[in-house]
Adenosine deaminase
Amino acid sequence: MATKPLNTPTAEQIRRAPKVLLHDHLDGGLRPGTVVDLARDAGYEALPETEPDRLGAWFREAADSGSLERYLETFAHTCAVTQTADALFRVAAECAEDLAADGVVYAEVRYAPEQHLEGGLGLEEVVAAVNEGFREGERLARENGRRIRVGALLTAMRHAARSLEIAELANRHRDTGVVGFDIAGAEAGHPPTRHLDAFEYLKRENNHFTIHAGEAFGLPSIWQALQWCGADRLGHGVRIVDDITVGADGEVTLGRLAAYVRDRRVPLELCPTSNLQTGAVGSYADHPIGLLRRLHFRATVNTDNRLMSGTSVSQEFERLTEAFGYSLDDIQWFTVNAMKSAFIPFDERLAMINDVIKPGFSELKSEWLFSQTAVASSSSGG
Ligand SMILES: O=c1[nH]cnc2c1ncn2[C@@H]1O[C@H](CO)[C@@H](O)[C@H]1O
Ligand SMILES: [Zn+2]
């Protein structure tokens, strides 16, 4: 463990800090109790456990397999129980509420509309139900004295062939709650270049997209996502470290691709716990985020799948704080990076940084200052 700086934030301070989340899957963030309720309503009998705590533990363990393919199998259950407008509305509302309770002030939450059509919904109805759920969750959060804005990202599955259709859907809803597009699913054997028509369409429409790349698969996947597809951000992108060498003397050399990613300020949607579960990284202390932060890459901290990883944004920051000795200034740096990289308009991002994030962190940092003064004067013996 790194040495603890004097201003190491407490778990409670981390939770109260205004945070920004760019990479979170709606179908990876259901409350275990909600999965149980919805399965009962839908007559879905294939859940491995029906008691919420045990089901939550099952998801975490099943996802802890060391392989992205096995990790992704657990989504069969969450998708099976979210095939109606009511179910989608509920999980979206609960998502916004849960994120707000964790201190998230701005989130982009993604899901694949094509995975919610088995109960007879159309793509438009799926998007409408989720958007309404997010608005309801924002409203409920407000009633509880919390403020959050949630934008949706529409994901196309990389093994399927509906990406252009989903990109068009995202574009149609760009003024009604959908802020961008993504592709996800198993990386190996499914290069993003198979979906070039979707990306080219979005570029022609001046729209935004991120691509899951450089999670299980290395540099070629990141290179394709950026240089062939034109991604605005990288979903994970953690394997960019394969293009960075740190010599015995500590001297750092960036390859051409890593230099491009840093120079162009390409946002990396890093998801530490998820990487540990899929076997991309061995431990928090070994997570490349430590190096990437030191080298000033545009790194951000994300949950990926709160249910499968049993995590929250605050918990990700707690683990990183333990591993790297991060201070509130580091957490603010990641948060401002994330807000700068969001897909909403520039003036709104700036207002969020200046009027919400910076004042929130200043408040927390001033608390630390006063508590230190009190300790110092009482220990001096008067
Ligand atoms: O870390 C990930 N890498 C790649 N695909 C993922 C990851 N997490 C979730 N999904 C996939 O994205 C779909 C839509 O939300 C999920 O159903 C899951 O299959
Ligand atoms: Zn993901």
